[in-house]
Design a protein that fits this description.
This protein is an alpha+beta fold. The chain has a single domain, classed as Electron Transport, Fmn-binding Protein, Chain A (Pnp Oxidase, Chain A), CATH 2.30.110.10. The chain is about 20% helix and about 40% strand. The chain contains 5 helices and 12 strands. A 7-stranded antiparallel sheet has the order 3-2-6-9-10-5-4. Strands 1-11-12 form a 3-stranded antiparallel sheet, with no helix packed on it. A hairpin with a 2-residue loop joins β4 and β5. The termini are far apart. The structure holds 1,4-dihydronicotinamide adenine dinucleotide (NAI) and flavin mononucleotide. This is FMN reductase (NADH) RutF. Belongs to the non-flavoprotein flavin reductase family. RutF subfamily. Catalyzes the reduction of FMN to FMNH2 which is used to reduce pyrimidine by RutA via the Rut pathway. One of its GO terms (molecular function) is riboflavin reductase (NADPH) activity.
Length: about 180
């Protein structure tokens, strides 16, 4: 068992892995690219996210990690609707558009959208769109984790996938 002094030393130690080493390691994980959107009382917003993951299928649930310093944070915090639009292989321009520093109307002017059951914008040419309501939110470090229960899905089986790997885009063709 650790003494109080040993516990204090462990808790106040600097992290063993610095931020840059963590990011370099994470850059080796290939990930799907998503434009995550919302609409509701807080207004309309969308951002690019690779930190999206399947949680469970009963109830069908995804998670999305959102940096609390993002310009879209307040809007997502005030709305319950979220649509995770996974990009098709030809949509890297859209990823860059929603990836930061662009005015929100300009971001949405870059593509065609429909309205989902929840009211969130669905990207017409997405590989797949998961229309969701946020069932739970929690904070870890700099990010909020949104647990999103899927209420409807729209899928284009013939499209390829846009993959982010080694800080760049790669294109996976469908079968
Ligand atoms: N989870 C996140 O919040 C992510 C944020 N980004 C943003 O896009 C910028 C460009 O990213 P890259 O070109 O891939 O180069 P980078 O060197 O900044 O990031 C490399 C990898 O580290 C991870 N990462 C980056 N920033 C992170 C963060 N704040 N929290 C948790 N994981 C993070 C991601 O997996 C990313 O692909 C980043 O600096 C960041 O602002 C990109 C990917 C994921
Ligand atoms: C490829 C890529 C993946 C990203 N993934 C995430 C993510 O998973 N979570 C996140 O909070 N931000 C992520 N970002 C950054 C957000 O897209 C960006 O902060 C957001 O568009 C808001 O930018 P703004 O604060 O300038 O408006 C990613 C950016 C890029 C280009």
């Amino acid at each position: 068992m650790k003494s109080q002094q040993q516990l204090h030393e462990v808790l106040t130690m600097p992290p063993l892995v610095d931020k840059q080493s963590f990011r370099n390691a994470m850059s080796t994980l290939a990930a799907a690219v998503n434009v995550v959107t919302t609409d509701g009382p807080g207004g309309r917003a969308g951002f690019t996210a690779t930190a999206v993951c399947s949680v469970c299928d009963e109830p069908p649930t995804l998670l999305v990690c959102l940096n609390r310093s993002a310009s879209v944070y307040d809007t997502f915090n005030r709305n319950d609707s979220v649509c995770v639009n996974t990009l098709a292989d030809h949509q890297s321009d859209l990823s860059n558009l929603f990836g930061g520093k662009t005015d929100m109307d300009q971001r949405f002017a870059g593509a065609q959208w429909s309205k989902a059951v929840t009211g969130a914008p669905v990207l017409d040419e997405a590989l797949v769109s998961f229309d969701c309501t946020v069932s739970k939110r929690t904070s870890v470090g700099t990010h909020d984790i949104l647990f999103c229960e899927v209420v409807s899905v729209r899928q284009h089986d013939d499209a390829g996938s846009l993959v982010y790997f080694d800080r760049g885009y790669h294109h996976l063709k469908g079968q």
